[in-house]
Predict the 3D structure of the following.
Amino acid sequence: MKYSLKNTKITDFDIIEKLSKLVNIEEYNIKKEYDIDIDFYNDDLDKDKLNTDVSYEIKKQHYEFIRHIRNYFNENGIKINEVNLIGAVTNIKVGEIDFEVYKSKYQDFRRNDIVPCREMYLYEDGKKALDIMLKTKQISEEEYENNIEILQEELNIAEIDDESGYIN
């Protein structure tokens, strides 16, 4: 089941109240286990632009939000196995949190995955593929540079500093 919270941040004090108004717990089978994917607009990112001044770190607030979500479902008798919290600045509106709750693929497999910035991971994967193509001479340097620019435009990335990495 899919849900969307508007005008909400993961740090809002009333997040569970908002969630309880949206989610009908009776739709869930207490004998089943569920996973949750959560996409949220990450306010820590710099005005829809990713650059070297922005930190892509996992923060305490991410874990606190996951704990609130898990507690809400557990208190209502719904077992949650995996929670995937994914921050983004593209393809999601400011102040929006999108949830998808679905039957778990595994039983008794509890896990939290946090990706503070989806675009950086997508960029890194795309860049690695282009790096390999350049090294194996499948593309020229000019094609490589053009594809990097296209990738940055698609992901709304202002600049990338190759020497900077993820903080964690």
